[in-house]
Amino acid sequence: MRDHESILLEHVAVSRRYFLKLGAAGAAALQLSPLLAFGDDAEAKVALAAELAKFEYLTTWDNFRLIERGEPLPYTHPIEKLREVGLTQETWKLEVVSDPDAPAKLDNPLSKELGTALDWQALMKLAETRAVRYLKVMTCNNIDTPLGMGLWEGVPLRDVIWLAKPVENVRRVFYYGYHNDAPKQIFRSSLPIGRVLEDPPGEYPVLLCYKLNGEFLDGKRGGPVRMLVPDAYGFKSVKWLIRVVLTNAPFGNDTYANGNNDVDSWMKTSARIISRPAKVKVGQPVPVTGMTQVGISGLTKVQYSIAPQEPTWPADDPWFTKADWKDAQILGAPEKWGGGLAGGDLPTATIGFDATTGKAQTWPLRYSIVHWSALLTGIPAGKYDLRCRSIDANGYAQPLPRPFLKSGGNAIQTLPLTVEEA
Q1: pLDDT band of 52, cuts 50, 70, 90
Q2: What is the 3-state secondary structure (H, E, C) of the chain?
Q3: Where exactly does CATH 3.90.420.10 map onto the chain?
Q4: Quick one: pLDDT band at residue 53, thresholds 50, 70, 90?
Q5: Interval 161-182 mean pLDDT
Q6: Rounded mean pLDDT of 187-214?
Q7: Taking 80 as the threshold, does the pLDDT of residue 388 lie above it?
Q8: Measured CA angle at 50 (ends 45, 55), to 5 deg
Q9: Which of 22-26, 122-126, 320-324 shows the lowest mean pLDDT across its residues?
Q10: From residue 331, how far is each of 28, 71, 292, 303, 371 by CA, in Å?
Q11: 283: buried, middle or exposed (CB in 10 Å: 19+, 13-18, 0-12)?
């Protein structure tokens, strides 16, 4: 059995316990769901396997979905070219320099020209005392389902910026990934200097990231080193990082600004249904399971609603605020995290986890995913729309407080459900 299957089977077992504790209705619901009612039946296990990748906590490398740029993709170059451009550990170097168009004052720029650029050996020396690990779900702001969740490790970017000894006139940090030295392929992003140098209470640091799930990044995952911005969507976590520029410019320079994206958008909290029967008989309970991405505003509830398809929902309530919302059950943290980690265990000194017990200090964790379950009963015959939404720690119901697509997709999902006469 592959590692991610074992951790997801454990998650399925948690879901089964939730339904079973509801008594006879919950036990009956298990018979409707190929995701939950696998038992010892080999054919049912095959059906289950198709669902497993949707329920991972830590996503294995092979199951991370990729959003890629570059022609050719930088990591596909021959090894000689990779060495030449600094995309191997032994040849990687990072520059931290001033912006010539809006200069910042640096007393010790890290540059290839001066022979002071940070190399892999120096980064690993910093990692001996400054390494940071945390969980983060990677999401594209224009896609409504996560690409994968990992345990990421790196050195805070600020530790390297201080090596360049910035003195004044620094308002933003521009950073660049290698993209074939072709101006039209440049991939870049930016952050306010304050976000890099100073973490608000409870926030994770921006990382020069070199590990995913305990293994050094390969080229496909953006290695040797990529940026990792915990509270942001994936376009901020630039791959194949080679250059950091400190600037006095007041505005961002992000590549995706050209696509009308909100380039300073925080990651949103949003819920999705993963498994539900599309058709049941009257009297049959309906098991529903789903996944929620926990954004910067946290998560307090996941809710579901079921409404007849006719009449159609009023156009003046596009966010379904008048629906009959009911609370779903948010499932707890897993005992084993999977993702290729030895024994499925998180390493010590992972942010958000008790160093002695290894348990999450709070749950749900921001910037991660959680799973949820609900059991619907007593539904008359008819055609319905099934919906779910999240409620964040500020009390906002999805898609608020930011319902705009270009600041991250979090529209309320709608799926059909048919209940037939027995």
Answers
A1: very low
A2: CCHHHHHHHHHHHHHHHHHHCCCHHHHHHHCCCCCCCCCCCHHHHHHHHHHHHHHCCECCHHHCCCCCCCCCCHHHCCHHHHHHHCCCCCCCEEEEEECCCCECEECCCECCCCCCCEEHHHHHHHHHHHCEEEEEEECCCCCCCCCEEEEEEEEEHHHHHHHCCEEECCCEEEEEECCCCCHHHCEEEEEEHHHHHCCCCCCCCCEEEEEECCEECCHHHCCCCEEECCCECHHHCCCCEEEEEEECCCCCCCHHHHHCCCCCCECCCEEEEEECCCEEECCCCEEEEEEEECCCCCCCEEEEEEEECCCCCCCCCCCCCCCCCEECEECCCCCCCECCCHHHCCCCCECCECCCCCCECCCCCCCCEEEEEEEECCCCCEEEEEEEEEECCCCCECCCCCCCHHHCCCCCEEEEEEEECC
A3: 63-259
A4: very low
A5: 96
A6: 95
A7: yes
A8: 100
A9: 22-26
A10: 20, 42, 11, 13, 6
A11: middle
**Domain 63-259: CATH superfamily, name plus number:** Oxidoreductase, molybdopterin-binding domain (3.90.420.10)
Of the candidate CATH numbers 3.30.930.10, 2.60.40.650, 3.90.650.10, 1.10.3210.10, the domain formed by 268-420 belongs to: 2.60.40.650
d(CA 191, CA 177): 15
331-346 pLDDT, tens digit each: 888 888 888 888 888 9
User: pLDDT by residue (tens digit) across 250-291?
Assistant: 999 999 888 888 988 899 999 999 888 899 999 888 888 888
